[in-house]
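Retro notes - structure team

What went well: the batch runner handled both jobs without manual restarts.
What didn't: labels got mixed up in the shared folder, which is why I'm recording both outputs here explicitly, each with its sequence directly above its tokens.

Job 1
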Amino acid sequence: QVRLVESGGGLVQAGGSLRLSCAASGRAFSNDAMAWFRQAPGKEREFVAAISGGLSSTNYGDSVAARFTISRDNAKNTVALQMNSLKPEDTAVYFCAARSRSYSAYSRLPSQYNYWGQGTQVTVSS
């Protein structure tokens, strides 16, 4: 069974850093595009970052570009999101998602992703 499990969320002060991790299992991982989305209360799910299968090209949402970095370790079947210079508006539940057999990092719609984790809460205080 395919599983995506997020970890690393928590409470952090504005300007601080946090590193999220997504552990994937149950299918071939290296050919899948992986992404992070986030959703704040009362808001739609928002694209954060993606990394392609194959050569690991990356793409970022405008609100997080230059602050967040997505990476993957295929040997460990993990994807990470390094978040720096955090702002209160980054507060949300962060979800890991996978799009099977995708070599593009430019899929930004939740409906394009096949598998989802349960999310991890990130709270940034003022």
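Job 2
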Amino acid sequence: QVQLVESGGGLVQSGGSLRLSCAASGTFFMLNDMGWYRQVPGKERELVARIISDGRTNYADSVQGRFTISRDNAKSTVYLQMNGLKPEDTAVYYCHALAVPVGTSRYLEVWGQGTLVTVSS
């Protein structure tokens, strides 16, 4: 009953910027962890950034200082501001959340459909 819808991916030149958005919809009590992962062919899905409901954040070393994750709890939306993009950032980016559905005390792990980010050299 919980869905994540991503937007903001596209083609950008090296050194450019993009802002990804992920909006949660459906019936849930709250969202705890929210984050962004990325994956390229032949490699494991990689954590890019995560943010807890209280605002604490973590970043992969490869994006530290270039990417910023934020969230708007009132809108159930998480964002990823990506600056100084490099060709090696090219990947499918997936939104991820831990949701608590109404009437439960269990976390439901939810993934978005993915949005492609392509950085030209």
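One thing worth noting from job 2: The chain has a mean pLDDT of 94.
We'll revisit the folder naming next retro.
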